[in-house]
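User: Run a structure prediction on this.
Assistant: Running it now.
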Amino acid sequence: MNFLFLIVLFISPFLGSLAALFSNSYDEKKLKLLLSFAGAYLFSITILSLMPEVYSSANKYTGVFILGGFWFQILLERYSKGIEHGHFHLHDVVKKHVIPFGIIASMCLHTFLEGIPLGAFIENNTKIGYSILVGIALHEFPAAFALAIILKGLKLTNRTILILMTIYCLTSPFGAILSYSLNYNVSESVFSQFMAFVIGTFLHISTTILFESSEHHKFTKLKTYAVFIGVLLALFVVFIQ
């Protein structure tokens, strides 16, 4: 098993958590640029690598599972409040002064699903595995930062925040480990449908990031550059040996 995958899956959101915990302020515009870059990269990797991989052994239900993952992510965001997209304006949550376990649980499920695609590549050092890993790491840093900012706004102790965020950070590696186990214990067709479902969630997450991180749904010059670089990086990773 390639433990580097698991370490990166944990370290990226954990660093985002620490950055939020020990910062007195944050630049939301810069975080949105990072999200735009990550969203463009994740979308491109999904189209260029994950979908061809799944459709190489597709059946008539593959598209159904992709749609299912897409709509499941929409349902999930009713509880996560869009924190995985970098949303910080959760004044109603902070005003209640109650730990938002519904938000935390939905975010944990979200990041658990993100770790699943790596299960098929965690055993060997394939280029597609590393390309997916980079996309997840880029997305998870600002997502964890946003969640930690919300918890910090509730005036929780640093110890409590670190415990909650550590649980969150462990869910993505757990998803990769479970997926790794399934890859060796279920048929290729079943695992392929499982992957198709995750592709649907990736498509929703990445496209929502691209449009919701825009002011009035318009691409600024800086955001256009960030998206362009994200797409170029994905093309480089996939096609350059």
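The chain has a mean pLDDT of 82.
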